[in-house]
Amino acid sequence: MAAKIISGTEVAKAIREELKVEVAELTAKHGIVPGLVTILVGEDPASQSYVAAKNKSAHALGIHSEQVTLDVGTSEADLLALVNKYNNDPKINGILVQLPLPKHINEANVLYAIDPDKDVDGFHPVNVGKMVLGEQCFLPCTPHGILELLTRSGVETSGAEVVVVGRSNIVGKPIANLMLQKRPAGNATVTLCHTRTKDMAAHCRRADILIAAVGVPKMITADMVKEGVAVIDVGVNRIGMSASGKAILAGDVDFETVKEKASCITPVPGGVGPMTITMLMKNTVQAAKMAAKLI
Questions:
Q1: Among residues 115, 117, 119, 121, which one is catalytic?
Q2: Most buried pick, 42, 73, 187, 193, via CB within 10 A?
């Protein structure tokens, strides 16, 4: 039997409806309008598209959104000064600096300059440390989205064997950490695989839940998974162009063959992708509530 398709598009839509109600209540009861600023340096088309989507989502939810585009030659000092300006702006609860940055700017310096209480990407070391300790913090958006997909799709994580393929700071490491914690969508036994893992297929075949976040198209094949596995495919890989000039995308999982063995699986596109921006909005609302001492 083919797998149930976990639609990130549908789950994200449901969460956005919840957030829209929450934002309206914050405004009506407390006079609070959550605020987000997105800062883009340069004119990278993909980054421009991501920033536009984030601003569109914010406006749709009633979140105050500002977007600043800087010249590609902007100095690191000027960018840091702008970040500091928004650190001290009470109208802004969340600051997002779109990555990647031009090579002459040190990304770590910029990310670390963001006030941890406005770090809605969840990349600041203070928030990373709190996440590892299981304290309240901004969870990184893609891992947070994965947790929501699992929870809202009824996938049991407690006691499950989870295999994460990929050890990036953005997805692999944080999702592995979150799923082993005593928390909803946690209490799992986690194996983290990477480029130096021996016999990766053997590890993957033990998984009750397999999370692929490695950036290699169709790397996970049907012979690498067991019957009934739940599959979360984080990969978005461009593998060609259609006749109409549209990019053809593939995940890290060979969807067509693996779906015949999996109990449930996320598609690409329309799986994890829509969740990331939605969780950014959720973090922005959380930041506004924190600033008002409501949580």
A1: 121
A2: 193
